[in-house]
Amino acid sequence: MTQTATTLIDRRDVDFLLHDVLALDALFGRERHAEHDRQTVAAMLDTAEKLAADHFLPHAAKLDAQEPTFDGEDVHIIPEVKAALDAYSAAGFMSAHADYDWGGMQLPHTVSMACSAFFSAANISTAGYPFLTRGAANVIAKFGTDEQKQAYLPNMLSGRWFGTMALTEPGAGSGLADLKTTAVPGDDGIYKVTGNKIFISAGEHGLSENIVHLVLARIKGAPAGVKGISLFIVPKILADGTRNDVRLAGLIHKMGYRGTTSTMLNFGEAGGATGYLVGEAHKGLTYMFHMMNEARVGVGLGAAVLGYAGYRTALDYARTRLQGRPPAAKDPNLPPVPIVEHADVKRMLLAAKSYAEGALALCLYGARLVDDSETAETPEARDRAFQLLDLLTPMIKSWPSQWALAANDLAIQVHGGYGYTREYPVERLYRDNRLNPIHEGTFGIQALDLLGRKVLADRGRALALLSEEMMATVRAAPPALAQEAAELTSAIGMVSETVAVLGRAAAGNQLEQALANAAVFLEMLGHVVVAWMWLRQATAAEAAIHAGSGTGSGPRAAFLDGKIRACRYFFRWELPRIGAQAILLQRLDQTCAEMPVESFG
Amino acid sequence: MKVLVPVKRVVDYNVKIRVKADNTGVDLANVKMSMNPFDEISVEEAIRLKEAGKATEVVVVSIGPAQAAETIRTALAMGADRGILIKTDEEVQPLAVAKLLKGVVDEEQPGLVIVGKQAIDDDSNQTGQMLSALLGWGQATFASKVVIGDGSAEVTREVDGGLETLSLKLPAIVTSDLRLNEPRYASLPNIMKAKKKPLAEKAPADYGVDIAPRLKTLKVEEPPKRSAGIKVPDVATLVEKLKTEAGVL
Ligand SMILES: Cc1cc2nc3c(=O)[nH]c(=O)nc-3n(C[C@H](O)[C@H](O)[C@H](O)COP(=O)(O)OP(=O)(O)OC[C@H]3O[C@@H](n4cnc5c(N)ncnc54)[C@H](O)[C@@H]3O)c2cc1C
User: Fold this and answer.
1) pLDDT tens-digit map of A28-38
2) Which atom of ligand 1 is nearest to the CA of A254?
3) Residue B230: pLDDT over 90
4) Which CATH number goes with the domain that contains B139?
5) Which of A68, A304, A523, A551 is the most exposed place for a label (fewest CB within 10 A)?
6) How buried is residue B14: exposed, middle or buried, by Cβ count under 10 Å (0-12/13-18/19+)?
7) Residue span of the structural domain in which B156 resides
């Protein structure tokens, strides 16, 4: 069974989110984007959709089955990957978001994310390479010297050189404070980098002429902990054309995302890899994390669209697979019905729809905040957007990783036995998506970041902004959505109460107890935020219906009706979960935390 | 040499079309529309001729509603130089299209017109041929290769038995087939550049053409549903059934 272009991302949904929900038009009024308009954006999305269907989708299953190999000298990847990426760069996607000065198109992040949705849904492994390259280029653009920008940006943004982000070490995964890679300065201001990195995505391949590694390392004699970490550019090939002292120790064989090489890299086996300091010494982690906000929105988006692709594939399957009859049908001579008509299959599909489309809405909203944080009219508006984004980032990264993944799980279930076979794409989509709660900060680490740093340490200031935003949606909800609006109001109240209890505990010497169930808090606030996203979508759908689009029958009416029903589903079936979570959190339940290690057995 | 390429806005090839309940046509409300794929191939060919120095200008023309301007923009984003939109909300049948195109040809004096061999909505496969007759120009239909020489063109066409190569005097009409080339994507920088390219708007009356339909559509229906197959235990039964039930042997 192959996937067809129409079963991945519903273009109507992307257009609806961009225009009806996120008011993209407002961005065209800003100087940076003044040359863009609805038509150019539509044309760009057309190109993304087509290129993804023609060049990314066709080799997705093959790339999974024939993962990259290493013969001790070179890494071999099926040729379709390079062909796809060359077409991607030639069409201008690598640099779409960048400044005109760097050959970019100054496309709003919201639009470039929407374009990415098509590529990632079609083939997340191939899409991984440009994702990392753009991330690395953004760091250099933001914190590099003019000389560094000149040396790297044009080559990276044109797709001739790719990039990586090399943080993780065997002894330093979640705990980056313990990283050991060292950099020794020479008289010329150039550093010699030595150490071992693991899990570095796209760390070696022959897809580009050069690979620009952004490496976190400790300058010799630097203070311990995160305050002693610096950031270096370590290119695979040096400016004089010689090979830098970076060696591939081996490839890692994974459950999914198989086409993006995962590498173990040895720096400085032959005396030290040449590295160039980015920005100031000891500020490396801050630089990396600045970029991470954006990268994490990207990870969330990847998770969302993999779930989305699973959902669309399952929906297509359910419409054509004939099996069983309605419970009340007694006549065995009647033909079996398409399984989409069974109540339980509808239950699975509606859950998957609410997760996948809810997740996509959340990520595109996050991208809109990235835009606002950079280009909103006033400094206050930019700051507000930044604070909201900073607070939401753990949820944008984690909610899709958990719930769009649940959509992938349901997509397999909808396929029955066929879903468990490799002849159908849904098991691959699940395996691919299973990475997302792990990398770029695990679920647990995101939870601590959210509750510890962004809510408690912040004394709920950003959270108050978020509540204001959500209440604005409540007030704008039409009468038809009064019930949902009221439920969102009480959900917001429940979050405030919970935060108040946790805040008191933290202030009263119980910080550890308060943080013990951070993951539950992440789930809870995530569900509230996605309920908000659904209310926004349903409100926009109601408005579209009132404006005369999608009245009567036909595909447009069905599309809008589907939005309103998915919203209702989310409020009735999903949001109530937070009640149980609030109880656990407010009781400071320590059942897990107090479990003696020996008692696990 | 100027090359003229007509482009038509049609239902996207991915859309599963639905017949209107009253059987008067296909439901086009809120359906994704795109450039006719054969026209994309024509545009690509014209751009390649320009890149190869054989053509000096690529002009695209579309006949249809205001939204057909988007189709022209797509062609401009691929690399065409300017567009002409002959705006009408009426149904325009192949003969009227050919007459309007003749008007454009008279005005623009291209050395070559590359037309899609057919549009994927009504599959008429007539416009190029009619235009050739109206102009009295040579035509090469179903082209899979076009080589421009000095005042002439050598065109390889796909025919039933294989490939046929024709030599035509220019100006001429070529209709493009699927294997002529693989159209490029409208790159993002070119999409932006296309915004600034000229797009003239005309009306059928500007060419003095009466576009009133000459053909009447009686009824549009879904193709009959295929009925379920059956499994037969052996070849003998199969042959038997083909003889007695299907009556094909
Ligand atoms: C396919 C893939 C691609 C990757 N790509 C890159 C890349 O390009 N660049 C890069 O630098 N890294 C990359 N990584 C590494 C990734 O970011 C790490 O795997 C991740 O940060 C977790 O680190 P770890 O694997 O060492 O797990 P550990 O840190 O050992 O975590 C194990 C478990 O313990 C939990 N845990 C750890 N510490 C705490 C704590 N303080 N409190 C509560 N729970 C805790 C974690 O949540 C997790 O559940 C990639 C990983 C994979 C699998």
Assistant:
1) 999 999 999 99
2) 1
3) no
4) 3.40.50.620
5) A551
6) middle
7) 2-246
Residue A599 pLDDT: 98
| C-alpha A508 chain-centroid distance | 36
Distance from CA of A55 to the nearest CA of B (A): 11
Tell me if B31 sits within 8 A of B39, measured CB to CB: no
Tell me which of B17, B187, B196, B199 to substitute to probe the interface with A (most A C-beta atoms closer than 10 Å). B187
Nearest to B29 among A47, A51, A554 (CB): A554
A601 touches chain B (CB under 8 A): no
For residue A442, how far is its CA from the centre of ligand 1 (angstroms)?
Answer: 6
Catalytic entry in A440, A484, A487, A574:
A440
Chains A, B: CB contacts within 8 A come to 60
- Cα(A263) to centroid(ligand 1), Å: 14
pTM here?
0.92
Mean pLDDT of A510-520: 97
Is A39–B29 a contact, with Cβ atoms under 8 angstroms apart?
Answer: no
DSSP bridge pairs for A213 = A164, A234
**pLDDT tens readout for residues B51-62:** 999 999 999 999
Residue burial A402-418, b: 16+ Cβ < 10 Å; e: rest: bbbbbbbbbbbbbbeee
Q: Is A442 in the pocket of ligand 1 (CB under 6 A)?
A: yes
Q: According to the 3-state scheme, what is the secondary structure of B29-56?
A: CCCCEEECHHHHHHHHHHHHHHHCCCCC
Q: What is the ipTM metric for this complex?
A: 0.89
Q: Which residues contact B231 (CB under 8 A, 6 or more apart)?
A: none
Tell whether the model's pLDDT for residue A6 goes beyond 70.
Answer: no
Find out whether B92 and B153 touch, Cβ atoms under 8 Å: no
Distance B28 CA to ligand 1 centre (A): 50
How many Cα atoms within 13 Å fall on the side-chain side of residue A331? 4
Q: Give the number of other CB atoms < 10 A from CB of residue A318.
A: 21
Residue B30, pLDDT score:
75
Spell out which residues of chain A touch residue B14, defining contact as CB-CB under 8 Å. 4-6
Residue at token pair 């059928």: B204
A1 has a pLDDT exceeding 70: no
Q: How many domains does chain B have?
A: 1
Pair A211, A236: CB distance under 8 Å: yes
Q: Is the pLDDT of residue B248 over 90?
A: no
Task: Judge whether A440 counts as a catalytic residue.
Answer: yes
pLDDT attached to residue A281? 96
Residue A230: left if φ>0, alpha if ψ -120 to 50, beta else—which one?
Answer: beta
Q: Write out the two tokens for A530.
A: 């996605």
CB contact under 8 A, B185 and A50: yes
Any atom of ligand 1 within 6 Å of the Cβ of A266: no
Among B236, B26, B214, smallest CA distance to B120 is for B26
In this structure, chain A runs to a length of 601
Ligand 1 atom, smallest distance to A132 CA: 8
Kindly state if the Cβ of A173 falls inside 6 Å of ligand 1: yes
Min Cα distance B108 → chain A (Å) is: 28
Q: Is the peptide bond before A332 cis (omega within 30 degrees of 0)?
A: no
User: Is residue A558 less than 8 Å (CB to CB) from chain B?
Assistant: no
Cβ contact B187–A47 (<8 Å): yes
Is A43's CB within 8 Å of B77's CB? yes
Is the pLDDT score of A479 beyond 50? yes
Using CA atoms, how far residue B11 sits from A7, A254, A497, in Å, is: 18, 42, 54
Q: Give the number of other CB atoms < 10 A from CB of residue A280.
A: 12
What amino acid occupies position A38? R
